[in-house]
Write a structure and sequence with these properties.
By secondary structure, the chain is α+β, with helices and mostly antiparallel strands. The protein has one domain: 3-Layer(aba) Sandwich (Glutaredoxin). Helices cover 43% and strands 11% of the residues. A six-stranded mixed sheet has the order 1-2-4-3-5-6, sandwiched between helices. The relative contact order is 0.22. The N terminus is likely disordered.
Length: 247
Amino acid sequence: MRIRFIAVAAAMLVSLAACNKKAEENAPSAPAVSAAAIPAPAGTKWSDKVTVTPAGGYLIGNPDAPVKLVEYASLTCPHCRDFSREAMTPLRDKYVDSGKLSWEFRSFPLNPIDVSATLLATCQGPGPFFKLVEQNYQEQDKWVLPFQQLTKPQQDQLAKVPQAEQFAALAKAGGLDNFYRVRGLPEAKAQACLTDKAKIDAIVAMRDRGIKDDKVEGTPTFLINGNKVDQPPTWTALEPELKKAGA
């Protein structure tokens, strides 16, 4: 997929169809393997530490954790939303803060709106990223709706915007820029991020890598220590796999 996909007006609308092809029942898991917690530096928690990875993802927790969870996710995906609402708190408080598990979020855009949302979510740097993602999913139903309500003339007008400005125009048309503005992102900085070609290219490259190297077919998709999780994309199915890995 290349960035010129935004020129297709029909792609301006978010599809709320299933964003992950899997629907199998969860298979029985082997007994959990226990391991001692790894203390964070004095006066901190591991969930306070967020870094950008070489792959371009955002990692929360102990960078040297023995169990490494990677999530490929879309900010407009309802299944990703459901996973976040169920898993964010236990993942952070029980697993990330133990120091035994790191959690890396890699953006996997399904549509142009995802690209705009990712550019804004990452615009303030690593520190607030996971909190913004959590808020994004908590209020996804609200902020996605204006994009679904764009009229055909509005879509046609967006398609005529110069390519370098299309993600900024899209964010403004759906009010997404305001969603992040009230969360501390100045308008000028948002505009700069939404038109940053290097950041846009990096997001698309991360998506392409997911397809080519990690065989991502839908969102959310999880890897544990580099191995794709062949289970339904739910917290109920994922947690036993984390325990089996030693988290």
